Amino acid sequence: MPIPEAAAETLHPELAQRLRTARAKIGMTRKQLAQASDTSERYLALLEAGTGNPSLSVMIALTGALDLSVADLMPLGGERDQRRADVIAAVRRLPNDKLETLQAWLAQNASLGGTKAKRIVLIGLRGAGKSSLGARLAERIGYPFFEISKEVEKVYGAGMRLLIEFGGRGAVRHYESEVWEKIVSDYDRAIIAAPGGIVADETLYSRVLETAHSIWLEASPEDHMARVVKQGDLRPMTANLAAMEDLRSILEARSAEYGRTEKRFNTSRQDFGTSVGLLENEARELLLRS
After folding, report:
1. How far apart are CA 32 and CA 35, in angstroms?
2. What residue ranges do the domains of the chain occupy?
3. What's residue 110's pLDDT?
4. What is the distance between the alpha carbons of residues 290 and 118, in angstroms, rounded to a whole number?
5. How many whole angstroms separate alpha carbon 5 and alpha carbon 67?
6. Any bridge partners for residue 119, and if so which?
7. Where are the beta strands (DSSP E) in 115-252?
8. What does CATH list as the number for 5-95?
9. Which of 9, 38, 174, 211 sits most deeply, having the most CB atoms within 10 A of its CB?
């Protein structure tokens, strides 16, 4: 899939320079790179001149031959600002034996920029049990319970469907962020159910993980689907014949982000009552860390 012309206008010159530099750095001729990446030498010459329009498959082939990531050829490494790009580039340059040290440091400093206090946030796809288990968990440990989506509706003054229709996803993220900061400001103790799509907003999701202990509630795709249908909410998972395939794709796409939580808890392995008790144990263990 070629890169759109509008984006290519700014991408080509820098990509060309990065490609030439990467090739020169390892002492590879253009002909050798063309052969190693199974790319036309003429096409490669156009790319290095900044006049070729690269496809994703070609970029993957080239970076594979150069032992780079695709991001290494992109302006700012594919990031939106220089500071983030510099940090990520520095991480990429770390030798493998240093990554474990960095990972441990990050785990110990996960609350950098905020305190988790005694707040617990439940993360996961719709149908995992965040609302039902969250409400019961809050009852058992005597904490207030909040559902981010419902709090957004209170602030906005209408349902999520209208907010999405008139304001788009950007407005949803704005209100979710506002609601989150209000909860963090007003409550040191709380159980919070986050919307499944919160992981799409990197800034907000990172803030959530910094300011609350987190548990990923996961379930089998079949249980996710059955619970959503039982709730009578058929969108968007049951809006088409490929619903289960869509659900599996969503789970696969989000699993890495959900996996950034401190704990993961499978709600498909036992009945509701047992789940509540086991989840309470997990929650109390996290609260002891505060």
Report:
1. 5
2. 5-95, 110-287
3. 53
4. 6
5. 27
6. 190
7. 118-123, 145-147, 189-193, 213-218
8. 1.10.260.40
9. 211
> Can you tell me the distance from the alpha carbon of 224 to that of 125, in angstroms, rounded to the nearest whole number?
8
Instruction: Return the SS3 of 263.
Output: strand
Q: What pLDDT score does 109 carry?
A: 60
Give the containing element (helix H, strand E) for 265: strand 263-266
Kindly list the distances between the CA atom of residue 164 and the CA atoms of 71, 133, 146, 167, 232, in Å, as whole numbers in the listed order. 32, 27, 21, 5, 20
Instruction: Report CA Rg, the chain.
Output: 23
The sign one gets for the Cα dihedral 140, 146, 149, 153 is: positive
Is residue 4 over pLDDT 50?
Answer: no
pLDDT tens profile 68-102: 888 888 877 777 778 877 888 888 888 888 888 88
pLDDT at 95: 84
Let me know the angle formed at the C-alpha of 26 by 20 and 28, rounded to the nearest 5 degrees.
70
CATH of domain 110-287: 3.40.50.300
| Dihedral class, residue 139 (left if φ above 0, else alpha if ψ from -120 to 50, else beta) | alpha
Cis check for the bond before 236: say yes or no (omega within 30 of 0): yes
Using one digit for the tens of pLDDT, what is the confidence trace for 172-213?
889 999 999 999 999 999 999 999 889 988 889 999 999 999
pLDDT classification of 1: cutoffs 50, 70, 90: very low
